[in-house]
Structure formats: structure tokens, C-alpha cells
Amino acid sequence: MQTSVQLAFSFEIAAMQLTPTFKIGVLQVRPMSKIVTMRLAPSQQAQLEVNFEIAKIQRVGKSIGTIRLTPSQQQSPMMGSRSAAGLQFMPNGEATPVQFVPSQQSQAAVVVTVPCQLTTIEFSPLLEIASVVLNSSSKQVLVQLAGAGPSPADGPRAFEIADLQLSERGDAGMIELNLIDESPTDDAVNAMLLNGAGTRSEFASRRRVEEQGAMIARQQKQIEALTAAFQKPSAQLELARSSPQTVVSN
């Protein structure tokens, strides 16, 4: 059985497209560093967080496929809170979409968390970890503004990888992400997504089935309550019919 892990990348926003209602539609991001943080998925009991360096990424279609990592003593980039004030309007002569790019004085940074499966650990002759191989388990990722607070409004949002550019050496270049949820994602769904338990559409299907099952159960209780209400007068009528009648004559 493969181990589910989360891989956190540090990216800077290269461009952002907004819909006519000024909601995020597309993010274009590029790596700030080759250093990533790997942690066990929430379903794992142990708490582990280790920094690695990306050695090579292989694509599957237009998304991330296999990721090879090597141990690193470097820290992931220190990223404080970034403000949207660092974005400037980029006219493109079209009615939609509206596009913004970071100004030269500021970078807008995000943390992109990718759900993966740990497939291989390679050891050196000294029995030290030489490299780790991961398989990305979903095209869907979670994106959060670097330095964002813990409130639900600042929580991660679900995006889908639409395009991934790689160099000949397997280094990540520009990545295009499409928003698939305009509201902060549900914690339970996020946990299952990061655990590699399925896709968001599968979770939505399961939730619909659960809601239908709950509705049927409520209807069944209502039917039982109505049946009991009708049976009570019937029982009283039968009792009245079966009771002995006493006639008093003067």
C-alpha cells in the first residue's frame, strides 16, 4: 500500500485572469525555488515534515506525473503576506477576461499543495536516503496566498492544473491553474483530496448520494409517523366495537 503525502510548492503569481464579475478564473504561476516541503497526509497518524529539492518532474498529459526529490538542508523560501496591491492591470483589448500581472516592486506568492503517493525510496551505500519518487494522484491542487491567516475566508481554494511547462532537464516552468471552486474549500473534502482518496467530482457524487439517502430516510420517518397517526384512531374504534355494551332499562 502506497503512502499518501502532500507536497507544498512555493510559487509566485505571473498573471491572473478575472471573470467579468471580478472573480479569479485563471492563475499563471512559476516556481520561486526548487525546494519543496513534503508532509504526511492528514490521514497518517505520524507528523512528518521534510524539505527536499526537486531533481526532475515528468508530465502526464498536461499535468504533473512523477516527481523525483533529493534531500536538502535548505529551507523553503520565507514568504510573508502578499497584497493584491502588487498587481497591475494588463489591458488586452478584449472585453473578457480581465488580466493582472505583478508589478516590478512586488511579488504575489502562493503555496500550492499537490496530493501525491510515495512510491519509491532509494538509499545510498551508507543507508541514507538518496532520493524519493512520488506520483501525483490528482490534477486538482490547493492554492493559498502565502502568509494567509487560519480563518475560513483565507483558506485554500481548489484549482485544476490546465497546463504545465517543463524544461528539457525536467524543471518546472510556467503552470496554468483554473479555479474549480469559487468559495473556500470544505475541510473534510480537502483532507480526502490531499489523501489521494479521489477527485472533487467523485466527492460531489458521494455527497449527492448521501443527501439523497438522508432525504429518503426522512421521508420514511414521515410515512411511519403518518401511518401511526392513522392506526391510532382505528385501534380506538376497534376497542369501542369489542367492548361489552350495557343497556339500562327503567
Key features?
alpha+beta, 2 helices
Molecular structure report:
The structure is a single chain. With 250 residues, the chain is of the alpha+beta class. The chain has 2 domains: 3-198, no CATH class; 199-239. 20% of the residues lie in helices and 42% in strands. It has helices at 187-194, 200-242, and strands spanning 3-18, 24-31, 35-40, 49-60, 63-71, 87-89, 98-102, 109-123, 129-136, 140-145, 157-166, 172-179. The longest helix has 43 residues, at 200-242. Mean pLDDT is 75; it is low at 79-85.
Mean pLDDT: 75
Assembly of the depicted chains: single chain
Structural class: alpha+beta
Give the terminus-to-terminus CA distance.
Answer: 93 Å
Number of strands: 12
Report the radius of gyration as a whole number of Å. 28 Å
- Overall shape: it is extended
Largest sheet: 12 strands, antiparallel
Number of helices: 2
